[in-house]
Amino acid sequence: MAKQLKKLDDLKSAFGKFDEMSALVDKVKGEIDDVNKKNVAAGGNDEIGKKYHEQVDKPTENLTVLVGAIRDKLQSIGLHGQGTADLFDRTDEHNTQLVR
Description:
Helix content is 86%, strand content 0%. The chain is mainly α. The protein has one domain (11-99). Helix 1 (11-43) runs antiparallel to helix 2 (47-99). The protein is rod-shaped, with a radius of gyration of 23 Å.
């Protein structure tokens, strides 16, 4: 068990980078959504198109859901991490007041 917790000086800004990563993943998700729309339109409804959709539609839907979940998790980590960094700061301030 740790005897002392120490907050790194750049902890809050480090968690801020998760927002940037989330935004990048969101751009990737947008591209995937665009490709999916084009696949639906291009696949057609004839026998070949139906076979194509049987093979492609579900995996691309799964990919879209997965990338969306990754985006959401990164955003959540950034938000909660920054909140934790703020909590550490408030704890430090409170401890300083107690020592005075």
